[in-house]
Amino acid sequence: MSISVVLFTSDLRLYDHPPLRAALDGTELTVPLFVRDRAVDGAGFAVPNRLAFLADCLRDLDAGLRERGGRLVVREGDLVDQVCKVVTEADADEVHMASDASAHAQRREERLRRALEAEGVRLHVHDTVTTAVAPGAVIPAGSDHFAVFTPYFRRWSDELVRDALGAPRKVRVPDGVGSEPLPSRDDVRGISEGLAAGGEQEGRKRLTAWLRGPVSAYEERHDDLAGDATSHLSPHLHFGTLSPVELVHRARRAGGPGAEAFVRQLAWRDFHRQVLAARPDAGSADYRPRHDHWRSEREARDDIEAWREGRTGYPVVDAAMRQLRHEGWMHNRGRLLTASFLAKTLYVDWRIGARHFLDLLVDGDVANNQLNWQWVAGTGTDTRPNRVFNPVTQAKRYDPDGGYVRRWVAELAGVEGRTVHEPWRLPDDERAALDYPDPIIDLSDGLARFKQARGR
Ligand SMILES: Cc1cc2nc3c(=O)[nH]c(=O)nc-3n(C[C@H](O)[C@H](O)[C@H](O)COP(=O)(O)OP(=O)(O)OC[C@H]3O[C@@H](n4cnc5c(N)ncnc54)[C@H](O)[C@@H]3O)c2cc1C
């Protein structure tokens, strides 16, 4: 009997899963395997919000496989050792998995290939599982990746995206391959109160609901902080419970300016992945060094703490930081504002902010998080690296009625109108009655320090 192993990583789904399809087409029996990789824990990536969401995803994947006659095998330990063990136990001939962009994923793939080759087992790595267009599929003349989004997007848009695959009808798993118990979100301590539920079924429901209506208003409303009119699909894309290929096709079929704007955001996701695949060190080192002497954790302890806690005295910044803590997710406009406030206004090393985001974000992702932080800090791919977002102007533009601030900053819930964005303008007695801090920095001082640091 021919036997294969499918190693699931950031692709925890049954729909549109090329490695699973290839394994099922090529062999009689297949072991669907997920390894809880110790290296991920060791690198500090196994944080409560993502562990809880992951547990939902694994349970849902197992349930989907069981409906089709199979089951999920879960192991824990060194990923390469565990895959080799399962290969031996199942007497498998081949292993299938998705390619991925990060340095960790690239090293993991290489180690696994060598270990399996030594056993005479072939590793098949499939592209366009975690991206719509594979890193390296479109490249500019004279370079191995695009460093600017707009020309990348032009080429990305012309690229043929492969057809999406359906889910398998039947999965036959060999006997005798043991599994550890599936994790449960109930066993995870310290998760955000408002954390979304994970799993492919949940993701597909959200996607269908999104494409049926709200996507049509996405172009006009995506920056409306209080309206919360974005898809919230990022955790599903991060864990791969939804396929980017399927999303691109379904959004294009839905059509219209909203769907087009949404597809453009999916291209941003691929863009960052092709940067990271070509420059794996961009997860921690400046992509474009600007000779910054950032303030460190020690030098800016109180400012960093106020930022993390949502007590900076700038209501929109505080609202977004509290949303992050409460939901393990933050609106994109909030991410831009809070990151700019930390890196530029407070002139704190972007890595400190990126780490805090990764500690809480359910969609926390090396490519998207680190490279967006670099974009905001001006060390990344932004063609205007010295732009600084003014949190008051931005708040008035993107939260004109103050609904977002009032939702997240309870101390300001009773402040009416736009003054909620500038509580320091309230009459003295009203201001004094609020248990809300004064701004920790004057915006013009922050701007002057940043300009000086950048030699402007
Ligand atoms: C400082 C900072 C940190 C960020 N960290 C992350 C992160 O860790 N993980 C993450 O998935 N996104 C990150 N983003 C990008 C973006 O904010 C989120 O993807 C988005 O807010 C998720 O909400 P949504 O699913 O409703 O997005 P939608 O607006 O509905 O967009 C659809 C999808 O497009 C992709 N997308 C949208 N904007 C971007 C972008 N700027 N870069 C790359 N992909 C994008 C996401 O996969 C998203 O789910 C970060 C942005 C900033 C400025």
UniProtKB/TrEMBL annotation:
Belongs to the DNA photolyase family. Residues 2-131 form the Photolyase/cryptochrome alpha/beta domain. Its cofactor is FAD. It comes from Streptomyces chartreusis. It comes from the Bacteria. One of its GO terms (molecular function) is FAD binding. The lineage of its organism: Bacteria, Bacillati, Actinomycetota, Actinomycetes, Kitasatosporales. Binds 1 FAD per subunit. FAD binds at Y218, T230, S231, H232, L233, S234, F262, D363, G364, D365. The keyword Repressor does not apply. This is Deoxyribodipyrimidine photo-lyase.
